[in-house]
């Protein structure tokens, strides 16, 4: 396809991050553009309350692509965005978290720019930051973690096993996106890499939402814990000593609560 002639160019496409779920974690910039949008293309992980900030009269198009469920191919999404740019002024492509983190934003950005369509990326709060604040722990801490690693459990053609090979967890906070379905393989890769079976891991479902659930364990027992509690997607994993810090702070918080409200 050749780029549109200048006189045919119309809209601008905004590739926007919706944050991890809690509508209050939407950025002001994202909110402003959503209120101005003529059409919004959104994913599964965008909460209905966030979609609710858009004007009622506009077109809302679902282009979800959750693993294993109905999927709208990336090329089809790119085509839909190109078409919308010819018909509307303000087009929003709304993605969970931060669009630049495991959000395929690069593919959409490149496809639009190749066709001469103006577009802009608007940052969102990624699930890692959202979950850290919602549970009450930092991603880095001078005594626990001096590095952060964001890893995807999944790649284009299956499990990202290589990502976990020879990975030493000491001194790091490792955040695993899209890892729930491959948890067994991930933990065995981490143990084969020499990490102690007691290495801490937390699994958080529906982070930042009212339905948030947190389970902590170690590399040896986390699969069993996840299965027993029927943890479902979306879920994110946190590996490293920072999980111990989280547990310590949680105990202190519970202590504060009982001091504040004696029975
Ligand atoms: N761009 C997103 C990540 C997209 S990949 C971001 O920056 O957060 C999708 C994965 O993100 C899910 O499989 C899950 O691992 C994680 N995720 C997204 N929203 C989540 C939520 N509310 N709770 C737990 N995990 C979530």
Outline the structure in words.
Helix 3 (74-87) packs across helix 4. The protein has two domains: 11-125, Tetrapyrrole methylase, N-terminal domain (Cobalt-precorrin-4 Transmethylase, domain 1, 3-Layer(aba) Sandwich), CATH 3.40.1010.10; 128-251, Methyltransferase, Cobalt-precorrin-4 Transmethylase, Domain 2 (2-Layer Sandwich), CATH 3.30.950.10. The mean pLDDT is 92. The strands form three sheets. The chain has a five-stranded parallel beta sheet, with helices on both faces. A five-stranded mixed beta sheet has the order 6-9-12-10-11, sandwiched between helices. A hairpin with a 7-residue loop joins strand 10 and strand 11. The radius of gyration is 21 Å and the shape is globular. The protein is built from eight helices and twelve strands. The chain is an alpha/beta fold and 263 residues long. The N and C termini lie far apart (71 Å). 31% of the residues lie in helices and 22% in strands. S-adenosyl-L-homocysteine binds next to strand 12.
Please give the CATH class of the largest domain. Answer: Alpha Beta
The total number of structural domains is: 2
- CA-CA gap between termini: 71 Å
Question: CATH homologous superfamily of the largest domain?
Answer: Tetrapyrrole methylase, C-terminal domain
Q: Beta-sheet strand percentage?
A: 15-25%
Number of helices: 8
The molecules bound to the chains, other than polymers, are: S-adenosyl-L-homocysteine
Report the average pLDDT across residues.
Answer: 92
Largest pleated sheet: 5 strands, parallel
What's the total count of β strands?
12
H/E topology pattern: EHEHEHEHEHEEEEHEEHEH
Structural class: alpha/beta
**Rg from alpha-carbon coordinates:** 21 Å
Indicate the low-confidence ranges by residue numbers: none
Q: What is CATH's topology name of the largest domain?
A: Methyltransferase, Cobalt-precorrin-4 Transmethylase, Domain 2
- Main sheet: strand order: 3-2-4-1-5
- Report the principal-axis shape: globular
> Can you name the CATH architecture of the largest domain?
2-Layer Sandwich
- Which bin fits the share of residues in helices? 25-40%
């Amino acid at each position: 396809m050749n780029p549109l002639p200048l006189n045919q160019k119309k809209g601008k496409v905004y590739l926007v991050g919706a944050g991890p779920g809690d509508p209050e974690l939407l950025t002001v910039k994202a909110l402003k553009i959503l209120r101005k949008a003529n059409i919004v293309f959104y994913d599964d992980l965008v909460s209905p309350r966030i979609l609710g900030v858009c004007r009622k009269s506009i077109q809302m198009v679902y282009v979800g692509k959750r693993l294993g469920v109905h999927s709208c191919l990336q090329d089809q999404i790119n085509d839909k965005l190109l078409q919308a740019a010819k018909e509307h002024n303000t087009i929003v492509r709304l993605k969970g978290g931060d669009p630049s983190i495991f959000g395929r934003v690069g593919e959409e950005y490149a496809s639009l720019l190749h066709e001469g369509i103006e577009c802009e990326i608007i940052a969102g709060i990624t699930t890692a930051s959202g979950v850290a604040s919602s549970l009450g722990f930092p991603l880095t801490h001078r005594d626990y973690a001096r590095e952060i690693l964001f890893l995807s459990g999944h790649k284009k053609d299956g499990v990202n096993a290589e990502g976990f090979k020879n990975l030493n967890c000491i001194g790091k906070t490792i955040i695993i996106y899209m890892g729930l379905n491959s948890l067994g393989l991930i933990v065995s890769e981490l143990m084969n890499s020499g990490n102690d079976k007691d290495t801490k891991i937390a699994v958080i479902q529906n982070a930042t939402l009212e339905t948030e659930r947190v389970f902590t364990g170690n590399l040896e027992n986390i699969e069993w814990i996840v299965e027993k509690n029927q943890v479902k997607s979306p879920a994110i994993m946190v590996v490293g000593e920072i999980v111990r810090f989280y547990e310590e702070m949680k105990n202190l918080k519970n202590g504060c609560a009982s001091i504040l409200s004696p029975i």
